[in-house]
């Protein structure tokens, strides 16, 4: 029984070392994409409204800066 | 003798042949069908009449246009907000917030952003890359982790069909397609896959419309059957009815409503099979000044919502 158990664990160890190379590539890609999505979320959260305002202020006919703040 | 024939008589057979010719044209040309409406707007007329945006409390909206394409909006909303609760009774918490928005609307590019005092951002982008291809993006971002949602849609519009591919966070993928089969009738289908909840679904939809009425039906394997019928009684009056049935959870809801579009106001009302009555009035006081009254009464759940508001610009 003990010998059978040890054989099983040895087999698993062998397979694990070969599979970890492929797994690490996928895991790396996942980690990078998660990091990129997190950064994109922060950039969008803080930058979307300023982006719309910049695009709007540069469209024709160009509005004046005081019109952004005054209620008239 | 032939010269004495009055000119009216040869005109009559010409008229008959003209009407016969137009009748022949009205026979459907299957190569020139109109483009159907987008799949998500299938129930558009019924939703406009039966589901107005009712609210509770005060709502004040001020939209200031800086030029034709760019405008800023300021909104103040004060009132009780419902929070989801497990028990049957509704729990409401009074909240007040201010929302700032910026809109840029161009024929090719539309950017709408709204940010609230608690940091929630609601962003919508629509970009026409070519005549037929459109990219849309929709995001609700919050400061709390794992509560943000985003979705991208890629739309392709063909001569008599529309197709769309959707990608959302949480590994949500969807695709839908709608095709005009006759000048009045269109059929469509959709599939979606939600990775996070390990759910997938498929659904079919049909829409029949004429100048006077619109009838739609939608079935999905999530158990939803939704049918609606809208009759345009005149330019000012539309009547709508709606039937929703979930064959997995055996939930049924039917509603009947009206939509009066008059010169100075727009009045919408509906009554439900759950005993819920809704009414929504938008009154135009002056150019650019609208007064809004909203009421939703649910006797069964003992939930009474009344709201009033003013929209400027």
Automatic annotation (TrEMBL), chain A:
Subcellular location: Mitochondrion outer membrane
Entry keywords, A to Z: Membrane, Mitochondrion, Mitochondrion outer membrane, Protein transport, Receptor, Transmembrane, Transmembrane helix, Transport
Annotated stretches, region: Disordered: 1-24
Pfam family, one: Tom7
UniProt topology in membrane: Single-pass membrane protein
Alphabetical GO biological process terms: protein import into mitochondrial matrix
InterPro entries attached to this UniProt entry: Tom7
Cellular-component GO terms for this entry: mitochondrial outer membrane translocase complex
Family designation: Belongs to the Tom7 family.
Protein's recorded name: Mitochondrial import receptor subunit TOM7-1
Provenance organism: Hibiscus syriacus (Rose of Sharon)
Automatic annotation (TrEMBL), chain B:
Keyword Transcription applies: no
Role, per record: Central component of the receptor complex responsible for the recognition and translocation of cytosolically synthesized mitochondrial preproteins. Together with TOM22 functions as the transit peptide receptor at the surface of the mitochondrion outer membrane and facilitates the movement of preproteins into the translocation pore. Directly involved in the pore formation.
GO terms of molecular function: porin activity; protein transmembrane transporter activity
Stated name of the protein: Mitochondrial import receptor subunit TOM40-1
Disordered: annotated span: 1-25
A cellular component annotation (GO) from this entry: pore complex
InterPro entries associated with the record: Porin_dom_sf, Porin_Euk/Tom40, Tom40
UniProt KW keywords: Acetylation, Ion transport, Membrane, Mitochondrion, Mitochondrion outer membrane, Porin, Protein transport, Receptor, Transmembrane, Transmembrane beta strand, Transport
Topology with respect to the bilayer: Multi-pass membrane protein
Family to which this protein belongs: Belongs to the Tom40 family.
Entry keyword annotation includes 4Fe-4S: no
Location(s) in or outside the cell: Mitochondrion outer membrane
A family per Pfam: Porin_3
GO biological process: monoatomic ion transport; protein import into mitochondrial matrix
Domain of life, source organism: Eukaryota
